[in-house]
Amino acid sequence: MTVTFRREGNAGLVELANPPVNAMGLAVRRGLLEAVRWAEAEAGLDRIVVSGQGRAFAAGGDAREFDGEPVPPHLPDVLDAIEACPVPWIAAAHGVALGGGAELMLACRYRIAAPGTRIGLPEVTLGVVPGAGGTQRLPRLVGLAAAVDMIATGKPVTADDAYEMGLVDAVADDPVAHALALDAAELAARSALSSLDGPEPDEMAIDKARASVARRMRGQVAPEKAIDLVALSVSEPFAGALRQERETFIALRTTDQARALRHIFFAERAAKAPDWLDAEAQRIESAIVVGGGTMGAGIAYALLLAGIAVTVIETDADGAERARAHVASIMEASAARGLLGEDKRARIEAALTISTDYADGASADLAIEAAFESMEVKKVVFSALEEALPTHAVLATNTSYLDLDEIAATLKSPSRLVGLHFFAPAHIMKLLEIVQGAATSHAALATGFDLARRLRKVPVLSGVCDGFIGNRILARYREAADTLLMDGATPWQIDEAMVAFGYAMGPYEAQDLSGLDIAYANRKRQAETRDPNRRYIPIADRMVHEGRLGKKTGVGWYRYPGGGGKVEDPLVEDLVAEEAHFAKVARRDFTSEDIERRLLLAMINEAADILAEGIAQSAADIDLVTVFGYGFPRWRGGLMHHADTLAVDAILADLRALETEDPIVWRPSAAIVACAERGIGFAEYRPGS
Ligand code: 3H9
């Protein structure tokens, strides 16, 4: 039974019972309709109280059903029946009431929420619009401005805010008890929201929502459509507007964008330790973080937030002072954004030690090394850690590029070492690459996955290679961009093309932000092992030689006058033209489509190699890495999901065409050839298969 109902005096108690979060699939819709019929037939009822079992009132329509044909009874019809029921329904919500769950509340005559309940219409984050009356009932209840803001952004409000704005009638510790105590006459006098006039017009609110969506959800279709529908509530009668809402919802459900957003939603939830991992995770009470730079401080703060005591190890007193300042500035920023209250801050400060002596963290269950990217430094650090820590402690390195197996080889017990590759800022970015070396034990890996869960991060397993999954793809992206630059494009043209594709910023602006010296150091490190026959573009090296390190030096690919916003720099165009002249390159024009196509192909080809080599376990894992660590547009579903929408055959044909230009750089990956031959997409491809 996914919906139960029973009588208690004059009240009918209806409970959604579809764990874990009461998604409103077919069985729930049928159950709710049955409850309506029961309420209609049962004599003497003066109210129906609907609540949810478990941790949520209802998480909304079951997104797993959105790929198939809609099966009746449809949610809008069920909610219409609830609203039209002669016995008034009361929503008694707790946990979350999202999407169809919030729409169920809106179909009731009275709404109560437990403190902390989150109520919202997040449909646009799944690439659809509310499809069960939300765009019409919410503006009638809270006014146009508040409704359009909630629906266009998809952001939920908490119970207190919902009360302030009139979305709920009461906030109560026990919403069901509160509902049972309500005055029956007062309840009977309440109107259905669908019977009310539309809200007052508010052009400014609609324009503001459109401007905000154009800025923050650029390229996405659903938010625009959602705003159109909310705007309709002013003038269009309820029934007609509801029909349009339904048609829009049905049409959007199967668009590429909605499929992509669903893919990421479910992939994120499926990201957990692989089934073959048969060891228990080490329980982590306290940890050492070696290195208190920006990355180390961010990692330390993330651990502290999760209730883990941390000792940050620095090399000397000055380093310790800097580490303290780094953590303090993260805490200041969090407090300023209202994310860190006084109590929590005091707890975190009490759980943090900063020291130059490993012995101060000697009882740690985990050590994460976030020291300078040098093999020599890492070896010294791990030798000290092995010396200082108990044998059960898991040792982790946050290296972005260095060979985990080489570090492990210096340890007495190399199986303790795992890679935990965080992304800056480490307390905010959701991706955690968990790197498995040749000797890494299952227990160390399981500990990494368990830590990711505690830190609320998205874990992705990676094998050992230069750059692991994400940075290896990034290196190819940058190489392809630099080649375009050399051959005729400008940095601004390339950035613009990738912003139009959906990135928040293009590769050159991104490099200016992170600093050109980091990638430079990597190229130097890789120089000896680089394929001498592979075309090398020296433009980025020249930029570094000229002191153009990015925003921090005021000049990089762009200029930043007065430390402000970016300005295109003609000197960079001159520098590039000069390098092209030295290299005897006949420069030519590239369209935005050329640029987008080449950059995507370069990344897809590298990602396919990463799959073929078993560095990544699945295409979905690569999607998670690119979306949660590298700014690939979520609404395109991640790199490999997007590749599958382009179709493997077309990708192979494109690569073959480019291969005539440069047979080394554009040689199609074996995985692409295999997928094309077998007529499968990347989603179905498994390494070794
Ligand atoms: C909608 O409502 C359309 C309507 O307007 C019109 C319809 C006609 N569907 O996140 P968790 C699963 S669109 C299917 O790990 P948490 C989830 O996959 C919907 N499944 O827990 C996971 O499964 P598994 C609008 C769903 O406590 C399990 O539940 N609603 C759905 O961290 C636990 O989820 C939304 O966009 C769903 N709607 O967070 C809300 N929701 O155990 C989307 C969850 O197999 N959901 N599952 O891995 C969320 O934001 C979070 O899941 C929630 C719980 C906050 C509810």
From TrEMBL:
Organism: Roseitalea porphyridii
Reactions performed catalytically: a (3S)-3-hydroxyacyl-CoA + NAD(+) = a 3-oxoacyl-CoA + NADH + H(+)
Pathway this chain belongs to: Lipid metabolism; fatty acid beta-oxidation
Protein name: FAD-dependent oxidoreductase
Ranges for domain 3-hydroxyacyl-CoA dehydrogenase C-terminal: 467-560
Lineage: Bacteria, Pseudomonadati, Pseudomonadota, Alphaproteobacteria, Hyphomicrobiales
Domain 3-hydroxyacyl-CoA dehydrogenase NAD binding span(s) in chain numbering: 288-461
Compartment(s) of residence: Peroxisome
MF (Gene Ontology): (3S)-3-hydroxyacyl-CoA dehydrogenase (NAD+) activity; enoyl-CoA hydratase activity; isomerase activity; NAD+ binding
Keywords: Fatty acid metabolism, Isomerase, Lipid degradation, Lipid metabolism, Lyase, Multifunctional enzyme, NAD, Oxidoreductase, Peroxisome
Single biological process term from Gene Ontology: fatty acid beta-oxidation
